[in-house]
Amino acid sequence: MIYCGTDWAEKTHDVVLVDDSGQLVAKRHITDDADGYRILLELLTEHGDTQETPIPVAIETSRGLLVAVLRTGKRKVYAINPMAAARYRDRHSVSRKKSDPGDALVLANILRTDMHVHRPLPDDSDLARSLAVLARAQQDATWNRQQVSNQLRSLLREYYPAALAAFEPWRNGLCRREAREVLKVAPTPSRAARLTRTQLQAALRRAGRERSIAAEAGRMQEVFRATWAHQSPLVEEALGKQMLALLVQLEAACTAADDLAEAVEEAFPQHPDAEIILSFPGLGVQLGARVLAEIGDDRNRFTDARGLKAYAGSSPVTRASGKKSSVSRRWVKNDRLNHAGYLWAFAAITRSPGAKTHYRRRRDHGDWHASAQRNLFNRMIGQLYHCLQQHELFDEQTAFRSTPAKALEAA
C-alpha cells in the first residue's frame, strides 16, 4: 500500500509517497496552480491510485483548492494537526532539523503507522459544505460587528456620553440603523445639542423607523440638550472625525452580518436535516445552521454520541495518574460548536420545561451556572445525535423523562 504526505505552502507544495515498509517511492515539488494539481494527480495514478483503491493523503490543513482537488472521488484526506505532526517529527530526528520535503515524509509515515487513530475529513455533502461556509462567515461577521461596536462605545465614553444615554433604551444600541444615522448628522455632542426635532425625525425615517418617531425624537433632543461634560472644541472635533471613521467600519460590519444572515436563512431550510435540527428547543435558523456546519451530515463521522460530545467539548475529561485523578472541562474542542452549544442551552432553558428542570436539578446538585448549562448541552447534543441517526424529530416527553436522583448524580 502507498501513502502520500503533502506539505503545503502558499505558492508551492512538497509531495512524498512511501510504501508499507517506509521506503521512499516518489517525491515531487509542485506549484499551487492547475498544472501542479494535475502533476499531483498523475503521480498518484502512476503509483496505483484508482477509484476502487485510492491512495490516502495526509496534509496539515482542511481547506483550500489543493484539499478540494484531493477530495475528489473516494480518496480519504487526513488533516493532521500541525502540533501532532511536530511530535511525530521528533520520532525521526533528534537534531530537530526541519525541511518541507522532510515534513511531507513525516506526514506520509503518520498514515503508514497510525492511520487508524486519525480521522479523515468527513464526507459531507456539497450543500452541507456551502452551509458551513455561510454559517461560519456569518458568525465571524457577528463577532466582528460586536468588536467594532465595543470600540465605538469605548470612544463615545471619552467625549460623547450623551449618545450612549440616548441609545441606551434601544436593543443592540449602536448596531441599530437609527443610532448610526443620528451619529452621522451629530458626530459631536455640540452638534447634537443643536439638532432640532425635525432633523432627528428625518434621521430616524432614513433609518427605516416607522413608529414612535416624534416621541423618540423628543426624548433624544432632551438627552442631547442636558448638561454634560465636554472636551475642548478642537479635541472634540478630532474625536468626532475618529468616531466617523469607526462608524464606517461598523456600517460595513452590520451590512455584512445582515447579508450573510439572509443567505443562511435561504440555504439552511433546503438541507434534509434542517427539520430535525429546528425541532429542538432553542435552535433557530442561524444557530441551527452553525450546529450543522460543525457536525456536518456525514453519518459515519462519529462512531457514537460520546465522540460528538467530546468534539463539542461538552463532556468532561478525566486525568488520572497513580492515586490522583481529576475531572474537568475540555480545553481541546471545536470552539465554534462549543460556543453555539452555550447559546443553544441558554435558549433551551426558557423554551423547554424538561431542559429547565434538568438545569435546575444540576444547580441544586451544586453546579455553577456554566457547568449546569454545559451539562444540559451535553445531554441535548446526545439527543441530537440520536435523532439525526434515526431520522426522528425531537420529542419533549422522550428526551426528558423523570430521572432518579442517583442516576442524575452519576450523569
* Number of structurally distinct domains: 3
Mean pLDDT rating: 91
Q: Please report which band the strand proportion falls in: under 5%, 5-15%, 15-25%, 25-35%, 35-45% or over 45%.
A: 5-15%
Measured on Cα atoms, how large is the radius of gyration?
28 Å
Description:
This protein is α/β, with parallel strands linked by helices and 411 residues long. The protein has 3 domains: 3-117, Nucleotidyltransferase, domain 5 (2-Layer Sandwich); 130-266; 275-410, no CATH class. 59% of the residues lie in helices and 9% in strands. The chain has helices at 34-46, 65-70, 82-92, 100-114, 126-159, 161-167, 177-185, 189-193, 197-206, 213-224, 233-267, 274-278, 285-295, 305-312, 335-351, 353-365, 369-390, 396-399, 405-410; strands at 3-7, 12-18, 24-31, 57-59, 77-79, 317-321, 324-328.
Quick overview:
The protein has 411 residues and is an alpha/beta fold. The protein is 59% helix and 9% strand. It folds into three domains: 3-117, Nucleotidyltransferase, domain 5, CATH 3.30.420; 130-266; 275-410, no CATH class.
Topology:
Elements: E1 3-7, E2 12-18, E3 24-31, H1 34-46, E4 57-59, H2 65-70, E5 77-79, H3 82-92, H4 100-114, H5 126-159, H6 161-167, H7 177-185, H8 189-193, H9 197-206, H10 213-224, H11 233-267, H12 274-278, H13 285-295, H14 305-312, E6 317-321, E7 324-328, H15 335-351, H16 353-365, H17 369-390, H18 396-399, H19 405-410
Parallel strand pairs: 1-4, 4-5
Antiparallel strand pairs: 1-2, 2-3, 6-7
Helix pairs in contact: 3-4, 5-11, 5-13, 6-10, 7-9, 9-10, 13-15, 14-17, 15-16, 15-17, 16-17
